[in-house]
Design brief:
The complex is a heterodimer of chains A (285) and B (270). Chain A has 285 residues and is an alpha+beta fold. Chain A has one domain. Chain A contains two helices and nine strands. The termini of chain A are far apart. The relative contact order of chain A is 0.18. Chain B has a domain of 184 residues: Lipocalin, CATH 2.40.128. Chain B is 23% helix and 24% strand. Chain B starts with a helix and ends in a 28-residue tail after the last strand. Classes of the chains: A alpha+beta (285), B alpha+beta (270). Chains A and B meet through helix 1 and strand 3 of A and helix 1, helix 2, helix 4, strand 2 and strand 3 of B.
């Protein structure tokens, strides 16, 4: 009888464990479909591609925005970062002010990404180019119609020494059946974190939550930016993607070859104001 | 006695049995609601692409042996028309003269895409990503992206001529264990090889990829059709090692790239 009792007990425990944990793990195994069979996403909603927007339900410590005194703050071309933001470490405020004052003096707010260098993370989000996710069990690729490729390795830990690169090392996992969580470290300090030209250090650590809405029409990316070398407390902001359509047509946008670095000669802007485009003079092989 | 009492508590009508029954009912109520929540909060679960047997071509590959010159399958020279041959020879002289990049070689000077078949002889790795209805070739060199739309027709000749791409427009299909990729619509200022081999707008390329050597290598046989430039069609062949141990790296013109000195045939200019 004792064995029957033990068996019954085990049965209840197993059943209850499944109820409590099993269903949760089934939910966790639901993989949101960001790839949409080759149809792209494009920055949409309440952002103007200049940087992260405030997360409505969680303003947190905010993000870098336009300098409040800059009279053309609504002009998305002349982006002037708020170098008085108290969250900036002194050196970062100094660098941002130098860049901002150049624009205030009539300069053009080029960032490396606007001259064909990689956007990095989260900078890749701020270009109005269609974005495409490719999903396999082991990896997610995030491509855009600006010729950028970003790789996310799924369900693994960071390397001991990932080194430094434009996109760093990204690892990811799915959460809650609708969210792709990406954790990125190892980015070098060549590019800014946004289109205000806000600098960062190699300590930059970005955690993104890409959440697909129930109707599969929008992706909200909330990025938490941790960089104790540049910011006193982590920044938090978001960017929204909607379904991309072809220019002048309701047809969904499909991938097209885009080569940033063609026709990169500039005839109207003095060379000293330009960020040089990537180029080489010597062959590698 | 203790054991007997315990068993008795599970009899119908006792408090414990009601508790246990309640737990089971709660479970059946809870599981569907959790699943429903998951379904409500997100789209239906994405189904990862599963290739047919013998058609799994996803992975990272690296050229086994490099040559800057493209040759036909039997090792012969390309069957250029005299006019095209003159352009080729003039470029070769300038390219081989030094490590400098010649002015018209945008792929090396500005890192625009190499074009096909030049990119097939790159001494840097590339990866193939298979997903539903499409295959992406992602090359490390110049971070080139090629999209192969599966089981779709190639756009018509007018479209290909009016909207040329560096890498051309590509469609693909499977013939058994061989991936057949057809490409047309190239910009005419890409080269066919690393010595400046020219081509025309009429270039059509067919690539046939298959795993060989027990799946440890990938072979591509590429057929070239460009009647304005060649006196006859010709083919070339490239072989790559399967390299699951590699990770693809970032690429930007003028920066330091992966060490390729171990690839046979590579000569790094001084």
């Amino acid at each position: 009888m004792s064995s029957i009792r033990t068996l019954l007990h085990l049965l209840w425990v197993t059943t209850l464990s499944f109820c409590i944990f099993g269903a949760g793990s089934i939910q966790a195994k639901i993989v949101p479909d960001f790839s949409s069979n080759g149809i792209g996403w494009r920055v949409a909603g309440n952002v103007d591609n200049t940087g992260l927007a405030e997360v409505p339900e969680d303003p947190g410590n905010g993000y870098i925005s336009h300098h409040p005194d800059w009279p053309y703050a609504q002009n998305v071309v002349n982006r002037v970062g708020d170098f008085t933001n108290p969250n900036l470490m002194p050196w970062a405020a100094e660098v941002l002010e130098e860049r901002a004052r150049k624009v205030m003096a009539g300069g053009i707010p080029f960032i490396p990404n606007s001259r064909c260098w990689p956007g990095g993370v989260p900078g890749m989000h701020f270009f109005p180019a269609s974005v495409f996710y490719l999903q396999t069990e082991e990896q997610v690729w995030i491509l855009n119609n600006r010729g950028e490729v970003r790789r996310v390795f799924m369900n693994i830990s960071h390397s001991e020494d990932p080194g430094y690169s434009w996109y760093g090392e990204s690892i990811g996992h799915y959460e809650g059946g609708d969210t792709l969580v990406i954790d990125t470290i190892g980015q070098d300090d060549k590019g800014p974190i946004d289109r205000y030209n806000t600098p960062h250090t190699r300590e930059l650590h970005v955690i993104e939550h890409h959440r697909l809405d129930a109707g599969r029409q929008n992706v909200r990316v909330v990025a938490t930016i941790v960089d104790p070398g540049a910011f006193r407390v982590p920044l938090k902001g978001m960017i929204n993607y909607g379904r991309a359509t072809m220019r002048g047509s309701p047809e969904p946008a499909k991938w097209e070859e885009y080569v940033c670095n063609e026709n990169s000669d500039e005839y109207f802007i003095p060379e000293e104001e330009l960020v040089p485009v990537p180029s080489a003079t010597r062959r590698d092989f | 006695m203790k054991s007997k009492n315990s068993v008795q508590t599970a009899k119908p009508g006792t408090f414990s049995s009601y508790l246990a029954l309640g737990a089971v009912l709660a479970c059946f109520a809870l599981v569907p609601s959790k699943l429903a929540l998951a379904q409500e909060g997100a789209a239906p679960s994405f189904e990862f692409f599963v290739p047919e047997e013998g058609q799994d071509i996803g992975g990272i590959y690296w050229l086994k042996s490099y040559s800057p010159e493209i040759r036909t399958m039997d090792g012969g020279e390309l069957p250029y028309t005299p006019e095209a041959l003159a352009i080729y020879e003039e470029r070769r002289v300038r390219i081989e003269a030094s490590g400098e990049i010649i002015e018209e070689d945008q792929a090396r000077r500005l890192c625009t895409p190499d074009g096909v078949p030049r990119v097939l002889q790159s001494p840097y790795p590339f990866e193939i990503v298979q997903t539903h209805g499409q295959i992406h070739f992602l090359y490390e060199i110049n971070k080139i992206i090629r999209l192969i739309r599966m089981d779709e027709p190639l756009p018509d000749d007018d479209y290909l001529e009016i909207f040329p791409w560096y890498s051309g427009h590509s469609v693909g299909h499977w013939e058994g264990d061989t991936l057949v990729v057809q490409t047309g619509g190239f910009k005419n200022y890409t080269f066919l090889d690393n010595l400046g081999a020219p081509h025309g707008y009429g270039l059509r390329v067919t690539e046939r990829y298959r795993k060989i050597n027990d799946g440890n290598e990938l072979e591509v046989v590429v057929d070239i059709h460009d009647p304005g430039v060649f006196t006859e069609d010709w083919s070339a062949r490239f072989v790559y090692d399967v390299r699951p141990d590699l990770r693809m790296m970032d690429w930007n013109c003028g920066e330091v790239h992966r060490d390729i000195s171990g690839v046979p045939g590579v000569v790094v200019p001084e």
